[in-house]
Amino acid sequence: MRLALLSYVVAILAVLGMVPTPAAAQAGLTGSALTTCALRDRPGLSPRQVFAASRGFVCPADQRRLGPGSYWIRSAPLRRSAPVAVRSASLWQGVVTLYALYADGRIVPTVIDQQAASRHVQLGAILEIALPQRPAPLVRLLWHVDHAANLRGIVRDPTLATPTQSIDSNLLMGGMYAAFAGLCIALLCYNFALWVALRHPFQLAYCAMVTGLLAYTVTSSGWIAWLYPLIANNDRIRANYLLLGLSTIAAFQFARTFFEARVFAGTIGRLVTLTCAITAAASLGFCLFAPLNVWLFDRFYSLAFALQMAMVVPLLWRAWVLRSNYLWVFALAWASPIVMASFRIASSLGMIGWNFWLDNSTIMTMTIEALLSSIAIAYRMRLLSNERDEAREREIAARLLADTDPLTGLLNRRAFLHNAIGRSGEQILMIADLDHFKQVNETIGHDGGDEVLRVFARTLRQAVPPEALVARIGGEEFAIVVPAESVVDPDDILTGLRAGRMPYDVTVTASIGMCSGPLERETDWKALYACADRALFEAKSAGRDRARSRDLPDSAHGRPAPTLAVRSR
């Protein structure tokens, strides 16, 4: 658990290092940073007037303070003559027109509607507009943003990049996204194969979460615009919100099935279900109705995520209180995603500044989570394997107790009949009964009588071959079944009993009745038992301490013999 807490601290420090001052906010965007100022749009303004204006512009560190609406965003003076492109973060916007002012006074506009924005999206969801090269150098840029939602900014962290810088950025981001996609596919194959074999619910929930994150990566990276250039950029953002929300719901379902059932029992489980329902409603609401009031649905979405992160605290606390076996591995694997998600929510709500790498932190943190979750799942599987082995041992022990006579350790009557009936081939059944056992009990007491039974049980086990079934089927009555080809002399049993050391040196003898025949059906058992019981009666009548044998009547093969209860002798 200390290791898990340390991972939370490291994740927080990493995020704090990611949240830079505004001047350093370009770390995730290639090229030279541009300083910009904003002017709220009003009727009658032309691009040339705005380029020439000396008053009315504000240059806030965070453009979100200006609120939604239509704006002019003007860059500081610059001088560039090489082929360059303007790069900025892709945001929820209406139509954007980029004006490039050159030293010869020429203004070149580029109109970017929703479909055009998708065609200009680069990996990392960066909007890149290549500027036409002219003999005169570029001296200033001006954006006119129509109906800016201003959820993250109006024009977010613009830079000027060369074609080489743009290619390098796409290669870097492409390698990062491809590595994450490959990891997701490998985890999907691995965990789905385990689920098919073992059917543990947490593996299927993990597969659902990884699938959601893989789909989220396709939209958040901007790759979907490369696959489907006709998609509107705002529609890409709507799909992005929906997939991230569904992925977090799958993550909670993974946690519900990963932990022991008692962790999510009662109120905490109902609160988690309610939280997931609110997140689902917020995700679907943004996806379906964001154009009606994007600011309202974005806030609802962010607050739903904040509620999810708040639920993590009592959930982990409950797992700690209940001494969950899986808390430390879960906390270790999910430290970075939880901390990063909390900071992203704070950024969405305007509590901290925006950062490119923080906005793309889901990919990096889920890569760490995926690697550590492999350890967590392996640990979970190990504990499940141990639990299964322990349960199997308990089942075997319980079965032995159910099949064994507790006094002698021999089979009881039920287990004996279960194993004896159905044997193929000729079988020998011997019924052994201690002589005058009532007198033995009266002489040395019931504890002494119990010891006599135990000594007789040991004598039987030592005198018969290993394949024989030996059971105590009544108070002092025992049964032995062996194949007819086995060599078993009942006199050896009687001799061993006489030689056995009895409590208080009391003399104990027994009588044995034998009969051979088939034991394939229950009717065979009844006939064979009746035959051996008659032989035992003859041994008792002849003076006890001896064995007698009888042949099974031919009629016994054709009709069932009457059921005989075990007699007390």
Describe, in plain words, how this protein is organized in 3D:
With 569 residues, the chain is an alpha+beta fold. It folds into 3 domains: 32-161, Immunoglobulin-like (Sandwich); 171-394, Up-down Bundle (Rhopdopsin 7-helix transmembrane proteins); 413-557, Reverse transcriptase/Diguanylate cyclase domain (Alpha-Beta Plaits), CATH 3.30.70.270. The chain contains 16 helices and 15 strands. Strands 1-10-4-8-7 form a 5-stranded antiparallel β-sheet. It is rod-shaped and about 135 Å long.
Provide a short characterization of the protein structure.
With 569 residues, the chain is α+β, with helices and mostly antiparallel strands. The protein has three domains: 32-161, Immunoglobulin-like, CATH 2.60.40; 171-394, Rhopdopsin 7-helix transmembrane proteins; 413-557, 2-Layer Sandwich (Alpha-Beta Plaits), CATH 3.30.70.270. It is 53% helix and 16% strand.
Features:
alpha+beta; Immunoglobulin-like; Alpha-Beta Plaits; five-stranded antiparallel beta sheet; 16 helices
Helix-strand blueprint:
Elements: H1 2-18, E1 32-33, E2 36-40, H2 47-52, E3 69-75, E4 85-89, E5 96-102, E6 107-112, H3 114-120, E7 121-122, E8 126-130, E9 138-148, E10 159-161, H4 163-198, H5 201-220, H6 223-227, H7 233-258, H8 267-289, H9 294-321, H10 327-348, H11 356-359, H12 361-403, H13 413-420, E11 423-434, H14 437-463, E12 469-472, E13 477-483, H15 490-499, E14 510-519, H16 522-541, E15 547-551
Helix pairs in contact: 1-10, 4-5, 4-12, 5-7, 7-8, 8-9, 9-10, 10-12, 14-15
